[in-house]
Amino acid sequence: MRLLRTAPGDDGKLEISQFSDHGIPPYAILSHTWGDDELTLDKLNESDAKGKAGYVKIERCCDIARADGLNYVWIDTCCIDKTSSAELSEAINSMYRWYEEAEVCYVYLADVPSKRTFEESRWFSRGWTLQELISPSVLVFYDETWMEIKDDDVHKRIADCTGIPLSVLQRERDLDDFSIAQRMSWAAKRETTRVEDRAYSLMGLFGVNMPLIYGERETAFIRLQEEIMRISDDHSMFAWESEDNDGFLAPSPSAFLHCQDTVSCTPLKNRASPLSMSGRGVHLEVRFIGIGLRGLGMALLHCRKTGEEDDKYIAVFVRDQDMTMEQFRRVRSEEISSVSLKDWKPSQCPMRKICIQARRTGHMRKINTARSHPLKGSNSEEYTRQEISQIMQFENEYALCDAALLGRNDEVWLLLTRSDIGIDVLSRAKSFPKGVRMGKDLVRDLSAQTPFSLAAASGNTATVRLLLQRGAELNSRDDFGRTPLLLAAQFGHTTVTQILLNMGASIESKDKKNVTALMYAAMNGHGDTINELLDAGATVNSRGGHLEMTALMYAAADGHTNAVEVLLHKGAAIYVVDALNRTAITHAAINGNKDTITALKLGGCDINWRNQEGRTQLSVAAENFPAKKNTGTVVKGLISAGAEIDARDNDGQTPLWWASGKLDNSDTVQILLENGASPSAKSYSGQKPADIARLRGHRLDYELLRRAEKNKLNGPQATRTRRFFK
């Protein structure tokens, strides 16, 4: 520490001595505002020094200190080598302590009383003089003529003009008794020549140290707040107000102008975790209340205004940026609010650990855009209390399910701010007896769904993302065993399907009937969803359902030509058979889906394809689908599609032969005969269709076939038929 001797040397020059920390003698210290003609260390004893106003100031200060019996004095103009950045940084970081340890501080008011009153002195508006006012144990004020200003009410006058409590000025209370916000408010109206000094001049007031980086401008104040957070969990440092809303940390001390009565408080229950800082922002634990659109809420800081009840807290407005309750940003920073917990249900204001984006630089580029939020009173995004109650539906345990189904993302977010709602709560049984319209479908079977499943089923992409980010169960199942992926595929929500697959949803999961997502997409004709599933690795030829059908069969059965074309392009097998030995083209033929049949043919499907026994699909259908069971359309459809009417299998048996051997199959026999089937075609063992009908006792089929033979041969078969059955 450099100190100036109060007595000049034998040569009449001013002498500077340097002392180690343990050898510093008693000294006086000067507090003043810099003028235009100050005397710095390197010019202290120049030939023209005595002619400068700064020299007179130093000389008079030394005279007073010497008269007080002090041999040394510290004056910032000449006791710091400002050409050395290291020494300047050390001095500024030590300055509060130097003023505190001085025997006496002389305050020189260079503009009193000639230009203004005591309270109007420039000294009370400068940043550096705040610590010089608070830290010394003894202050003596002098006017511009170096006459001592004596006033029994000096401390009160200072308190009135600075906002600093009298107990601080009279050293009756420790600085730590006052909140961060209160101490910041004392500097709110003070200015410095260098922007950075507004922060550097406050280091001692908060007991922190940090390197000086001149040129960083407003960022210095951000760094100061970060240093304060390392040693304090006082939330009042966030209770500032300013039009500048680039982060959670204040842009300058001016933002604390109205914080003189902001005091810190600690909740009696659920003590908050300490503050911490990361690249994402400020991490803190607070009560959070959702109040508006697009994630608008209030973070209740652990501070309040002096004299307020214990259940009241200062709240700042924040926005949940990703609607995940993880990353917030302060908004509407020009205002704060006082919130009483009595006005809210406990479930609406739970303690939460959140992260609020901090300002990383003090100087932000000005962008000419509209405000990111409306001002209070103009198209506000904030719900009224009545609207919040209507959305919350405290008596409705299925409120979250209803909001997710309808894609009301803001309502889903608001409901999830409650502590008593689980994200995977199941929907009510028989939730929608009148049905819910989903695209072209009217769905009634959405019972036992989670909110996430309902959002996936209804294709609400934003809600799906929100619930996923909030931890919804990716592979939950409803009463039918359907996962969210199966539901999204069922209703053709391709974007939702993609999101679920990217998040790791099980692509081969099956419902209780062994139906996969690909099958659901195929049976409902959702070509784009089929493409998405196949590109993600779905097995194209897997079989499911009680008939063990493939996706191609499901698409063909319902006449979804586009889906059939997509599946064929992706390599779907055309000759796989289901549990009843039917191929995809048979399913298409059942409903007479001509375009689908054409698509299957173009894809390489032969209507007369034969299985290992040499039987065609018409042969199989003729045997297995009696017309009386409303499946005669299978045979008709195959014939219409070009099936060979008398195609023989490996044993020479035609479709009519197989139909004749089936009990109660007269309608099928009739259909085949009407379409030109030969009643006389014999198998390789010599049996005609009528022979197998007689052998198995199918009288009606036998008579029908014999008449058909008679019509062709014009022989006496009718008599023989009656004789056979006597």
Automatic annotation (TrEMBL):
Q: Keyword Flavoprotein: yes or no?
A: no
DUF8212 domain boundaries: 220-248
Which keywords does the record carry?
Answer: ANK repeat
Q: Per the record, a Pfam family?
A: DUF8212
Q: Does the keyword Repeat apply?
A: no
Domain of life per record: Eukaryota
| InterPro entries assigned | Ankyrin_rpt (IPR002110), Ankyrin_rpt-contain_sf (IPR036770), DUF8212 (IPR058525), HET (IPR010730)
Give all residue intervals belonging to the Heterokaryon incompatibility domain: 27-111
Protein name, entry field: Uncharacterized protein
> From what organism does this protein derive?
Penicillium steckii
